[in-house]
Amino acid sequence: MKTDQVIKILFIEKSVEDAEQIISLLRNSGIAVRPARATSAEQVNAALDELGPDIVLYDPAVGTLELREVTRLLDGHGRDLSLVALVNQADNVTITELFVNGARAVALRSQPRQLMAVVQREFEALNARRQLRRLEAALRESERRCDALLDSSTDAIAYVHEGMHVRANQAYLDTFGHTDFDDLLGLPVLDMISPNDADAFKSTLKGLSRGEKPSSPIELQARRADGTNFKASVEFAHATFEGEPCLQVVFRRQQVDTNVIAQLQRDPVTGLFNRARMLECIDQAVAAATEGTKGQSLLLVEPDNWQAIVTGVGLAKADELLAAFANRVESQLGTQDTAGLLAEHTIGVLLHTRNDENIKQWIASLQQAIAGGIFDLGTRSITITASIGGSLLGEKNANTELLLNQASQALRNAQSQGGNRSDLHDPAAREKADEERERYWLGVIRQALTQNDFVLYHQQTISLQDAEGEFSEILLRLNGPQGEVLPGFFMPIAEKHQLTPAIDRWVLNQAIEHLRARDRNGSPTTFFVKLTSSSLEDTELLPWVAERLKKAGLKHGQLVLEMTESKVVTSLRPAQQFIQDWKKLGGQFALEQFGSGLNSFQLLNHIDADYLKIDRSYMADLPQQAESQKKVAEICRQARELNKQTIAEWVEDAASTSLLFACGVDFVQGNFLQEPQRLG
After folding, report:
1. 659, CA 20 to 30 Å: which among 45, 153, 550, 552?
2. Any idea where the domains of the chain sit in the sequence?
3. Which pLDDT does position 239 carry in this prediction?
4. E strand or H helix at 233
5. Domain 440-678 - what CATH class?
6. Ordered DSSP codes for 634-674
7. Vertex 184, ends 180 and 186: CA angle to 5°?
8. CA dist., res. 365 & res. 270, Å (int)
9. Which of 57-71, 158-172, 264-278, 417-431 has the lowest mean pLDDT?
C-alpha cells in the first residue's frame, strides 16, 4: 500500500486511549491517518459529513450504538466505505452475527498484525472499487467520443456480431454504395467480399471468434452493392458494442505498405522496437497472462554508469555505443522473445516459454556476453557491464503499469547493489528476496557508521512572525553504492537491528559541529534534529549531548530534538522522562505530525513541547480544503494559548503560505520555499 496516502478512519468506541493505540500502530508503520471518533448517531452523521471516512472501526462494546444502527446510518449517507468490526476475541457465532449485521471484515484488537492487514486490505479494496467506478465513467466517455469519431472517420468501419452487421459509419455506407444502415441490417459481412476471397475471409472470422489475436491486415477484393469490386486492405480488432463482444472491421482502399509500417515501429538508433510498439507487445503479453499463459517475464536492461561512459566517449559516439549494446542484447534473444527501447538507454525484453531457472540462466548469459565483450568506437575500445531488473508475469500481476513498476523497482534494486547485478521480482519468493536485500543493506549501514558514509541535508524553516536567527531541519541520507538513499528505506532495517541509537549520535555530533562553524561565521542557527524512539532508553545520550554542546560553546536552545507524535504516544513514559531531563539542561523539544491523533492537545498534558509541527496531511491541497484550513487555524489558536510555536511542513505553493499566515502559523517549511540542501 502506498504510504503517502491518508486513510480517514472513524472510530466508534468508548475509549479514546484504545483508538490512539491503533492510530499509533498505523502511523508507526508509515501509514498516514486522519481520525475521528463518535459514540452517538448524531456524532456519526457529523463525522460522515465532515471527515468523509474511508473506514469505520466499530467496537460492539461501545454500548450506545448497535451495529445494525451503524450500518443503517452508513447506508443512508450513501458513501462507499468499509465497516470493520473491532473485537478483542471472536468465535464463529460472534463473527456470523457481525457479518449478518453489516460488517465487511472483523479485526482482532489483540492481534496487531491481523488488524493492520485487515485495514490495509479494506483500504486497498475501497480504492479498487473507486478506481473501477472512475474507469467505468471514463470508458463510457471514451465510448461516446469513439462513437463521434467513428461517424466522422473517412475509413470504412463496421461492427460485426456473429457475422452480421450491428453498426457501420457513413464512410462504410458510402464505400459499399448503401444509403442507409437499414440496408445492412441482417446482411452478413461475408456478402461484402468477392466470392474469390470469401473462403479466406470466412476462415479469418472463425479464428477471431475463437479468441485468436487479430493478424496483420489482409488484402482482398471487396464487393459493392452494385456488384462491382475494389481492392481493399482489411483490418480486424476485438471490440464491444452496447456491452456485447463483437468484431471491428476496417476496409481501406489504399494498400498499406507493410514494410513502411514495420519501419515506423523500429527505433532508428538501435533497430529494436520503439517504445510505442514495445508497450503494445507488453500489453499483448499481459492479455495472454490473464488467459492463463505461463512462462512470460519482462526484463529491463541498462548499461551501468551510462552518463559517465557517454562523457568519456563523447556525445557523438553515444548512439553508436547504444546500438552496439542493443545488438548484444538482441543476439541473445530466442525466436519468440521480443526486445524494444523503452527509455533513453533502457531496453525492455519479453521472454516467453521459460521457467524461472531458464530466465536466470538467460540473464547470466546476457551479462556475460556484455561484460565479456569489447565495444569498438572508432579508435577507442571499451568494456561495459549491465544491470538487469525484471518481473515474472502471471495472472496476479497481469497489469501493464504494475508489471512495469515491478520490473523498474527490481532494476533499481539491482543498481543499488553495484554494477553487473540483477534482480528478478517473484511474488512467490518475495520474503526470501527481502531477507537477502536486508542483509545487504545491513552491511551498508554498518559500513556507513564506521566510514562516515552518511550525509546531512538541511531545509530552511522560515519564520512568518519575524523570529530572530535562522532555523533549519536536519535531514539524513545514506551514501549508497548507486547514490544517496532516503531514510525511509534504510532506517527500518537499522531499527530492526538496534542501530538507530548509533545513527542518532552520528547525526547529533555532525549537527553540533556545523552549528559551531555557523556561530564562528556569525550566522547563529537553530537546528531541528529527529530522534528515534530507541534513543529514549539511552541513559548516556543526554549527558553526552550536553558535553558536546558545552565543548562547542553552543546554547542548548540551538538544538531542538524532535519526535513524531505517534512514537511519543507509544513510548509515553520514557519520552516524558527524557524530555524532562532535556529541558532541565536548557534544551527544546518539537512534536512532529502533530494533529494526527484524536486528541493531540491532551498529549501536551504529559509532554512539554516547545514546537508543534502540524501533520503533513493537512497541507495536501490546502487552498481547496476548507476543513483542513479550519483544523490548522484551531491548532494554532490552542498552541498560542499554551505558548507553543507551530510549524507547517510540506508547504506546496504560495496560496498555502498565505493561508497559513492567516491561520497564525509561526513557521513554514517545504520544497516550494526551499529544496533541501547539502549541509556544508
Report:
1. 45
2. 6-133, 153-256, 267-425, 440-678
3. 83
4. strand 229-241
5. alpha beta
6. HHHHHHHHTT-EEEE-S--SHHHHHHHHHHT-SEE--TTT-
7. 140
8. 21
9. 417-431
Q: Are strands 470-480 and 525-530 parallel, antiparallel or unpaired?
A: parallel
pLDDT in tens, 475-530: 999 988 778 888 888 898 998 899 999 999 999 999 999 999 998 888 889 999 99
pLDDT for the residue numbered 79: 78
Q: Does domain 6-133 have CATH number 3.40.50.720?
A: no
Residues 132-146: tens digit of each pLDDT: 878 877 777 777 777
Query: How many helices (DSSP H) and strands (DSSP E) are in the chain?
Result: 22, 28
Q: Terminal CA-to-CA distance of the chain, rounded, Å?
A: 36
CATH superfamily of 153-256: PAS domain (3.30.450.20)
Kind plus residue range of the DSSP H or E element containing 490: helix 487-496
Classify 267-425 by CATH class. alpha beta
- Complete edge-to-edge strand list for the sheet that includes strand 296-303: 338-341, 347-351, 296-303, 386-393, 422-425
Contact between residue 151 and residue 126 where contact means Cβ atoms under 8 Å apart: no
Smallest CA-to-CA distance from 165 within 140, 189, 141 is with: 189
Q: What are φ and ψ of residue 402, in 5° steps? A: -60, -45
- Let me know: does 86 contact 109? Beta carbons within 8 Å: yes
Spatial neighbors of 572 by CB under 8 A, at least 6 apart, are 606, 607
